[in-house]
Amino acid sequence: MSSDLQSKPKDQVRIWVDGCFDLMHFGHANALRQAKEMGGYLVVGVHSDAEILKNKGPTVMKEEERYAAVAACKWVDEVVPDAPYLTSLEWMDRYNCDVCVHGDDITTMADGSDCYQAVKDAGRYWECKRTQGVSTTELVGRMLLNTNEHLRKTATASASSPFLPTSQKIVQFSEGREAKSSDRVVYVDGAFDLFHVGHIEFLKKAKEQGDYLLVGIHDDETVNKTMGASYPIMNLHERALSIIMGAPYSVTKDVLSKICNVAVVCHGKGDKYAFDLDGKDPYALPKELGIYKEIETDLSDISTETIIDRIIANRKLYEARNRRKLEKAALEEQMLEEQKQQQQ
């Protein structure tokens, strides 16, 4: 590490992070959170579909969707589209970045070389802790297990994740702000499975309806019973950061008043929902009170189902992608072990 970087105040350090950020999940968000804590300004380079296809395989989310998902992360200050897969000092310098941050694993190019070797050699590479138990490959694998129509009706719900949202992790992800008595509180609920740009745009629009946005997420059993046995793809632990865990499927008086006084309940326009198990409309109460509002967004055509359909339509392609990724991961793990032994 250069002496200039060592002596630079933390809030003046510009951090570079790059990646695919496909099916943006809490593992990605946790890496960005850790990276932002290392400096004052976080620049995130996102690879194009073509670059990822060449080095890793086909993406699930299109590049514009991935750019938008990263831009919506609260720790990101700037997004650089079409960043090269091979991290270079030239690109870091172009955006005045002092150091590159990556997880404590190895990422390789198509030829097997370390993507970060140049920045490591230059002493401008820092590591953050990789979040165990979640990856895009893992999520694609779950969807591949649920591709046949009959499996959607008969298979068991998604397996438990080794990741648990401890109180410490929830504090790290949350803003820590409670609603003030003067705030106009907006309430939304849903499964928020495979959290995507459609969800992001809806939440942005909902937030515009008031001062404080309260988000409830349905538990696995509720999602499973109302949507089908292959849902949710991500379990409650994986969907629960920064939101209410186990919110009731129907909006009740407790939801509207116990946590804070809700002024409006929002739902996506055209976003169909199933009636509760008792056959009643889950939004009957807010409709009766005149506080129910449907919101239309530009990305309302993107849903958990359409993402799964992308996998189904290209099943063989994604199966081959996952096989290659697992083989590549094994080689990268071997390289990491060899590096550790050399350092001893």
Class from secondary-structure proportions = alpha/beta
Cα end-to-end separation: 20 Å
Largest beta-sheet characterization:
5 strands, parallel
Q: Beta fraction of the residues?
A: 5-15%
Q: What is the 3D shape?
A: globular
Low-confidence stretches: 147-165
Helix and strand element order: HEHEHHEHEHEHHHEHEHHEHEHEHH
Tell me the strand order in the biggest sheet. 3-2-1-4-5
Please report the number of helical segments: 16
Helix coverage percent of residues? 40-55%
The overall pLDDT average reads: 85
Question: How many distinct beta strands?
Answer: 10
Using only C-alpha atoms, the radius of gyration works out to 22 Å
List the helices and strands and how they pair.
Layout: H1 3-7, E1 14-19, H2 26-37, E2 41-46, H3 49-55, H4 63-71, E3 78-81, H5 89-94, E4 99-103, H6 117-121, E5 125-128, H7 136-144, H8 149-154, H9 167-173, E6 185-190, H10 197-207, E7 212-217, H11 220-227, H12 236-239, E8 244-245, H13 253-257, E9 262-268, H14 284-288, E10 292-295, H15 304-313, H16 315-343
Parallel strand pairs: 1-2, 1-4, 2-3, 4-5, 6-7, 6-9, 7-8, 9-10
Quick tags:
single chain; 344 residues; alpha/beta; five-stranded parallel β-sheet; 10 strands; 40% helix; 15% strand; globular
Description of the structure:
This protein has 344 residues and is an alpha/beta fold. Helices cover 40% and strands 15% of the residues. The protein contains 16 helices and ten strands. The strands form two sheets. The chain has a five-stranded parallel beta sheet. A five-stranded parallel beta sheet has the order 8-7-6-9-10. Strand 9, helix 14 (284-288) and strand 10 (292-295) form a beta-alpha-beta unit. Helix 7 runs antiparallel to helix 16 (315-343). The longest helix is centred in the C-terminal third of the chain and has 29 residues, at 315-343. The protein is globular and about 65 Å long. Mean pLDDT is 85; it is low at 147-165.
